Amino acid sequence: MVLTWRQRRKYMYLAVLAVFAVFLLLFIWQKFLHTTPTCFDGAKNGMERGVDCGGSCALVCQGESRAPTVLWARAFPSATGAATAAAYVQNNMAGSGARGVRYSFQLFDQDNTLVVEKTGIVDLPPNQIIPIVETNIDTGNRLVTRAQFTFSQSPVWVKVPAGVVAPLRLSGQALAGDGTRLSATVHNDSLDNVPRVTLVAVLFDTNGVARAASKSVVQSLSPKSSQNVVFTWGPATRNVARAEITVLPEF
Length: 251
Hints:
With 251 residues, the chain is mainly β. The protein folds into two domains: 65-160, Immunoglobulin-like (Sandwich), CATH 2.60.40.3230; 164-251, Sandwich (Immunoglobulin-like). The chain has one helix and 13 strands, in the order H-E-E-E-E-E-E-E-E-E-E-E-E-E. It has one helix at 5-33, and strands at 69-79, 82-90, 96-108, 114-124, 129-138, 146-151, 157-159, 168-175, 181-188, 194-204, 210-221, 225-232, 242-249. The strands form four sheets. Strands 3, 4, 6 and 7 form a four-stranded antiparallel β-sheet that branches. A three-stranded antiparallel β-sheet has the order 1-2-5, with no helix packed on it. Strand 8 and strand 9 form a beta hairpin.
C-alpha cells in the first residue's frame, strides 16, 4: 500500500503528538506524582536495605546491628564512702557510632549484695575500644568488691564517614613511679575547631588487671593546637605497670 503525501504528513503529525504526549506524561509524573527516595520518608526505596536504613542511608538497619561487648567492669575505692566504676566496651560496628545510649553500673559488696546502682548516658564513637567511667559514686560505709556493667537499651548505630572524627593524637605520656600521677598532651592536627574531647585513663597491673580509672574533659581544641592533661590518684593505687589513655572526641 502506497501512502499519499497527505497521509504521510498526517501520520507524521500523529507521531509528533504521541512523542509530545509521552514527554508531557513523564514530566507530570516526575513533577507531581514521583517522590525522590530519601532516608527520612518512612519507606524502603532507592538503595536502602530496610526502611530508611542501610545502603546510602547513615542509619544502620537493626538486623545488621551487632551489640557491643563488655570486656570487663571493675570498681575502685576512691575515697571514704565513694568509689569509681569503669568498664571497657568493644564496638563491634566498624565505622559506626551510637549516640545517647543508656547504661547502668551495679556495685556489689563481699556478700554479693547490691550496694548502689549508677545510671548514665554515653555516646559510643567509632572507636574499637570505648572506656566508660563513673566517678564519685556514693557507697556509704559499705565496701564494694565487684561491679557489673550493662546497657539499658540497644544502641542505634549510624555510619560515621571518614573525616568526621577529628584526627587527635597523644604524645608525652608519662606515669609517675608510684602510679599516682599520669600526664600527656593531646594534639588537634586538623584545621577545624574540635569541641568537647573526653579523655579516659586506666591503670593496669602486671597481670593486666585494671587498678584505677579517671577521666578528663577538654572543652575545646583550636585548630593545630595542643593541651596538657593530668590524671591523679591517691597513694592506695599500687602495683601499677602501665597506663592507657583513650581519646573520645564527639562525632
